[in-house]
Structures are given as structure tokens and as C-alpha cells.
Design brief:
Arc Repressor Mutant, subunit A; 2 domains; three-stranded antiparallel sheet; 9 helices; 13 strands
């Protein structure tokens, strides 16, 4: 009999980066909204995540009405998200007891939707719960950023931005006057991507940067600028060396630069 774990509401989901990478590459908005709602529903404080057995199933109950209100979703959309989660698996490697091991695990092997009592019983392996309620190598996700998103690629873009924003490189800065030392994150919130990388991350097959800009970058930016506390600026970087060599034709784009920007001042952002 699976043990039931009672969730307590929270606003920030602390999710293992490997789960985020799986969703950036292959999933949809409704499925991720359901997963993030489970993630933000932190387990009771007396539950020690480390003590969960990897191969045991645990039940995390999620009520339908709050998730409907929170994301403005219909029951059908929630059902679709649960169904998609049921088909999603991730794999990752780790060193365990001195041995190199790789796990292939389903994110939601079983779920029961009780429409009478309006509750979803999410059956999750202990191994996956440790990833959803991560204690190391995680990203903190503000779940409210996913409310109101409309474009199909916006969730993946937002996850990508969260990953970029969570990259850290800490160095010690010494004040030359006081000699006081402080830790400073010197990692710029910027990444460069080639077209093949972008197509893989967004599940697209665009042949040119201009098409990717038209159907992904522009609509995602409009969506996030309006609805999210973080958004992005982008630059199509051209081959200046090639420009000097070629006398005719357009200068080819060699990659896209994406910069994370703070959008919390937007009145429409949650």
C-alpha cells in the first residue's frame, strides 16, 4: 500500500535540473503546470526526503479546484497534463556506492482522478520525489510565472531562462578599502545557442534563424513580457568575418544570444 504524503502549500518549486532539462526538450505547458503544482505543494515538514525509498510508490494528493483556479485551467486541460506526465520518463547517471549507474524512471507511473471528491492521487516513486523536491543541483522555480502563458513554446522558454538565471559562478570579492570579503555571482545571465540546439530544445525543425525568430522568439517574448516576472532579450549574431569576405548576399546568422531580464516591474505579471 503506497504511503500518502500530505502536501503543504508553497510558492516556490525547488526542482532538480535534470527534470527541467527533460521538460525543456519534450513536454507541453499543461503537463508542466501540473508538475509544478505538485512541486510547489511541498511535503509536510516531518517528511525527510532523504529517507524515501527510491523504488517505493508514494501518493501525493492534489486537489482539482485549487489547481483550476491557480492556473485558470479546465478539468480537461488538467487531465491532459496528467496523461502527458504519465507518458514522460527521464534518465540520468549517478555514482552510487562507488558504481556508475543510470536510471530510467517514469515521472508519474500512476494517477487517479476522483471527480466526485475533486482530487488527483499522484503515485510517484521516491526516486522522482527526490528530484521534484530537490535538495541539491536544483533550480528554484517561481510557479506563478507560468500563470497566463498562452504560446505553446513559452513554458520551454521560461524553463530555459530559469536555467540560465540559476547558473552561478561564485568568486570572492575583496573590498580594497576595508578588505572585507563577500561572495559575488560573476556568471552573466546570458547564453549563446545555435539553430540545431534551439530546434532540439523546442522540438522544432526550422531551417533558418529568421523562421525560428518569427515562430518562437517573437511570440515567446511577447507572452513573457506580458505575463512573467522574468523575460528575455535576444540578438541574432551575424558572421562579421564572413561579411568582410562576401560582397553580395545577406550576412549569415551564426547564433542567437539570449539575455535574461527582470520583468517584475510589469503590472500584468503575477
Amino acid at each position: 500500500m503506497p504511503k500518502e504524503l500530505s502536501p503543504a502549500q508553497n510558492q516556490i518549486a525547488q526542482v532538480d535540473n535534470r527534470v527541467l532539462e527533460a521538460f525543456v526538450k519534450d513536454n507541453d505547458l499543461n503537463a508542466f503546470q501540473v508538475l509544478m503544482y505538485i512541486g510547489k505543494s511541498q511535503l509536510d515538514k516531518d517528511v525527510d526526503i532523504r529517507s524515501l525509498e527510491d523504488d517505493n510508490l508514494y501518493v501525493v494528493p492534489v486537489r482539482l479546484n485549487p489547481i483550476r483556479d491557480y492556473y485558470n485551467l479546465t478539468s480537461r486541460q488538467i487531465r491532459t497534463g496528467v496523461q502527458k506526465l504519465n507518458k514522460t520518463s527521464i534518465n540520468y547517471r549517478r555514482i552510487e556506492d562507488g558504481k556508475d549507474k543510470e536510471s530510467f524512471v517514469n515521472l508519474l507511473p500512476k494517477a487517479k482522478i476522483n471527480y466526485t471528491d475533486e482530487v488527483i492521487e499522484c503515485y510517484v516513486f521516491g526516486e522522482v520525489l527526490k528530484l521534484i523536491y530537490a535538495i541539491e543541483k536544483y533550480s528554484k522555480i517561481d510557479v506563478k510565472n507560468f500563470i497566463g502563458l498562452k504560446h505553446k513554446h513559452s513554458a520551454r522558454m521560461l524553463l530555459l531562462l530559469e536555467r540560465i538565471a540559476n547558473y552561478k559562478k561564485i568568486e570572492i570579492y575583496t573590498d580594497p578599502k576595508t578588505l572585507k570579503q563577500t561572495k559575488v555571482d560573476v556568471m552573466p545571465k546570458r547564453q549563446h545557442f545555435e539553430l540545431d540546439e534551439l530546434n532540439k530544445m523546442f522540438g522544432t525543425k526550422y531551417k533558418s534563424y529568421s523562421l525560428f525568430e518569427k515562430w518562437v522568439l517573437k511570440p515567446c517574448k511577447e507572452d513573457l513580457d506580458l505575463n512573467s516576472k522574468i523575460s528575455f532579450d535576444y540578438t541574432l549574431v551575424k558572421d562579421r568575418v564572413g561579411e568582410k569576405v562576401k560582397s553580395r548576399g545577406r550576412t549569415p546568422v551564426i547564433h542567437v544570444t539570449i539575455d535574461v531580464i527582470d520583468n517584475s516591474g510589469n503590472l500584468f505579471a503575477q
